[in-house]
């Protein structure tokens, strides 16, 4: 069992024992049958992983769709798109379909925001020209964009980047996290982004910090979470490594084929989770 497994299990246990329930309160999300999607949650969750010491934040008590997570990151930060047809046809990812605002997009969100404000190029140039600056920030929560169209507000909403000698550290700030469904996927995909950005600017991945303001478990996921936290983790999980193709160093040239996950043998079978929209 690795650090990510331990953090996940401890957080789930804390939420189930001490979390605040929205049962009886007015909530926005609903299940497909129209029933309000209530949660039990905690706030201000902080996790930290030293990638230079191989503290890789992937769960082994369940299988994580790491390739799909990285593909989504490529769609957001390389393609800089909100177009669902690109996500489906280029990457074969369909989990955003329910958030189609009616025009084939998720609204002026995520990749469209990255493109509008030239956020990635500004970051890459800033890290090269002023590496020890303290303003290396990508913020996807732009009020003008949110007011321009309907659509889900960004959950993984901000990244802050810091150079520390030969290392590039990353802090991911997330306003909301569906703990058993998406939390570990978000970690993997932003570590992959950290690896690509670090390679582009000639650095190595250092610390990865993940701050979640609202970590929650939906009321129709309690049974699955109870099973997950009772599972044993992978015994040799310290040997799991995400490897990036050493032949490439241009951010925009990386594809999913440039990533390899080594020694990953998670607990199975996978569990199904009903989506709250």
Automatic annotation (TrEMBL):
Pathway assignment: Pyrimidine metabolism; dTTP biosynthesis
Catalytic class of the enzyme: transferase
Alphabetized InterPro entries for the sequence: Thymidate_synth/dCMP_Mease, Thymidate_synth/dCMP_Mease_dom, Thymidate_synth/dCMP_Mease_sf, Thymidylate_synthase, Thymidylate_synthase_AS
Subcellular location: Cytoplasm
Gene3D superfamilies per the UniProt record, alphabetical: Thymidylate synthase/dCMP hydroxymethylase domain
EC number: 2.1.1.45
GO MF term list: thymidylate synthase activity
Biological process according to GO: dTMP biosynthetic process; dTTP biosynthetic process; methylation
Reaction(s) the record says it catalyses: dUMP + (6R)-5,10-methylene-5,6,7,8-tetrahydrofolate = 7,8-dihydrofolate + dTMP
Alphabetically ordered keywords of this record: Cytoplasm, Methyltransferase, Nucleotide biosynthesis, Transferase
Family, per entry: Belongs to the thymidylate synthase family. Bacterial-type ThyA subfamily.
SUBUNIT field: Homodimer.
Record protein name field: Thymidylate synthase
Species in which this protein is naturally found: Helcococcus ovis
Taxonomic lineage from the root: Bacteria, Bacillati, Bacillota, Tissierellia, Tissierellales
Gene name of this polypeptide: thyA
């Amino acid at each position: 069992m690795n650090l990510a497994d331990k953090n996940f299990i401890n957080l789930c246990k804390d939420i189930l024992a001490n979390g605040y329930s929205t049962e009886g309160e007015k909530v926005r999300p609903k299940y497909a049958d129209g029933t309000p999607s209530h949660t039990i949650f905690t706030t201000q969750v902080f996790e930290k992983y030293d990638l230079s010491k191989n503290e890789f934040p992937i769960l082994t008590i369940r299988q994580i769709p790491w390739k799909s997570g990285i593909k989504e990151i490529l769609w957001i930060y390389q393609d800089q798109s909100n177009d669902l047809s690109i996500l489906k046809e280029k990457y074969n990812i369909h989990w955003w379909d329910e958030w189609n605002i009616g025009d084939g997009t998720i609204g002026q969100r995520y990749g469209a925001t990255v493109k509008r404000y030239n956020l990635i190029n500004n970051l890459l140039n800033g890290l090269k020209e002023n590496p020890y600056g303290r303003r290396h920030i990508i913020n996807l929560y732009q009020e003008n964009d949110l007011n321009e169209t309907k659509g889900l507000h960004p959950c993984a909403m901000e990244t802050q980047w810091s150079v520390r000698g030969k290392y590039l550290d990353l802090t991911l700030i997330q306003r909301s996290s569906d703990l058993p469904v998406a939390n570990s996927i978000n970690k993997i995909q932003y570590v992959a982004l950290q690896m690509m950005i670090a390679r582009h600017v000639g650095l190595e991945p250092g610390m990865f910090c993940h701050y979640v303001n609202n970590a929650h478990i939906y009321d129709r996921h309690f049974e699955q979470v109870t099973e997950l936290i009772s599972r044993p983790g992978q015994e040799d999980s310290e040997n799991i490594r995400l490897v990036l193709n050493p032949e490439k160093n241009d951010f925009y040239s990386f594809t999913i084929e440039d990533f390899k996950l080594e020694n990953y043998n998670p607990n199975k079978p996978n569990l199904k989770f009903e989506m709250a929209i």
